[in-house]
Specification:
With about 170 residues, the protein is of the alpha+beta class. Helix 1 packs antiparallel against helix 2.
Length: about 170
């Protein structure tokens, strides 16, 4: 079987969705998480799909962030903590970090030059999810190849970008 045969073509996927749409299960208040994501990323909730379970918890909600959908649910009391790890391409990573910090998030990695023509930043929200922000480097008069770092990930010294991630990962669930 050809690999392309197992996923739908973009035209077959409902508008506003992509081939992969993350589902974030929130330990705490999913409604407050939705408000947080709306403030940080200017996300919009699809109000017509919000569904409450029999016990009053949120069993399904959807947010539109740019061209992607994020599905959300409250965790049940006997479910384990399952943090989400989300990557978001943004125009201004510092602005997003500032919004996140102003709304209770912990900055994990300040905006830093990264390989592949991007800057990277990370924050951990108050529900324990880790967000990766990718901002394109400015290409002032440079061609695409010149704007990229000279080093690949494996050639970079384990500096701040690496160690800030390792530190937060070691402390998850503690």
């Amino acid at each position: 079987m050809n690999k392309r045969d197992i996923t739908l073509d973009k035209k077959e996927i409902p508008a506003g969705y992509n081939t992969v749409n993350p589902f974030v299960i929130i330990k705490g208040d999913a409604k407050k998480f939705i408000e947080f994501v709306e403030k940080i990323f200017d996300a919009e909730e699809r109000k017509n799909v919000r569904t409450l379970d029999r016990d009053g918890t949120l069993i399904h909600a959807e947010l539109q962030i740019g061209n992607s959908s994020v599905l959300i649910s409250d965790s049940k009391s006997d479910w384990p903590f399952t943090p989400a790890f989300l990557q978001v391409y943004v125009k201004d990573a510092q602005e997003v970090l500032n919004r996140a910090k102003d709304n209770g998030a912990e900055i994990v990695t300040e905006v830093s030059k990264f390989y592949g023509g991007f800057k990277i930043a990370r924050f951990k929200d108050t529900w324990g999810n880790l967000w990766w922000l990718y901002e394109p480097e400015e290409n002032k008069g440079k061609n695409k190849e010149e704007s990229k770092s000279d080093l690949s990930w494996h050639e970079m010294k384990p500096g701040y970008i690496y160690t800030s991630l390792m530190e937060v990962m070691r402390n998850f669930g503690k």
